[in-house]
Amino acid sequence: MQRRSFLAGTTALVAVLPLASAHATPESLQAAIREVVGSAALREGKVKIDLPALVENGNTVPLGVTVDSPMTATDRVKAIHVFNEKNPQPHVYTATLGPGLARADISTRIKLGDSQKIVVVAETSKGEFWTASADVIVTLAACLEDLT
User: Fold this and answer.
1) 116-132 mean pLDDT
2) 46, 122 in Cβ contact below 8 A?
């Protein structure tokens, strides 16, 4: 195949392919949450998010989550799921908690490409899903700064 016909063919192919969004949307956020919870109801409460309201650099945003739970063998938090509204992947992180933990408490750092809403869903051993959300303003978005 000649170079010119190859380039013409690939250009035509790219022109007809739909362009994927580089950011999650509120709709994709809700779809990602539904993948985790299914048809179960989301309840407000029990989840506390420790997230700065304003961060200078989106490359490393501290996030802490605490869930009010007795953490017994029959009533405990099994997993903590973190979602975001505008990053390319709306499901950011899942922490699976074992039965021997005394508290449902995690901390991590996440990357944020823009100012957005963070949603946390705690999944319990009883099949309940507790949620909370927090907004964060990012002054310097992750992955957008000049690395030179």
Assistant:
1) 97
2) yes
Looking at 8-12, 17-21, 43-47, which range is the least confident one?
17-21
Decide: helix, strand or coil at residue 3: helix
Contact of 75 with 24, CB cutoff 8 Å: no
**CA distances (Å), 120 to each of 58, 72, 84, in order?**
18, 22, 9
pLDDT of residue 96: 95
d(CA 40, CA 28): 18
Domains of the chain: 23-140 (2.60.40.2470)
Burial of 106 (0-12, 13-18, 19+ CB in 10 A): middle
- pLDDT per residue as tens digits for the range 64-120: 999 999 999 899 999 999 999 988 889 999 999 998 899 999 999 999 988 999 999
Q: Which of 3, 23, 39 has its CA nearest to residue 86?
A: 23
Task: Please give the Cα distance from 58 to 41 (Å, whole number).
Answer: 31
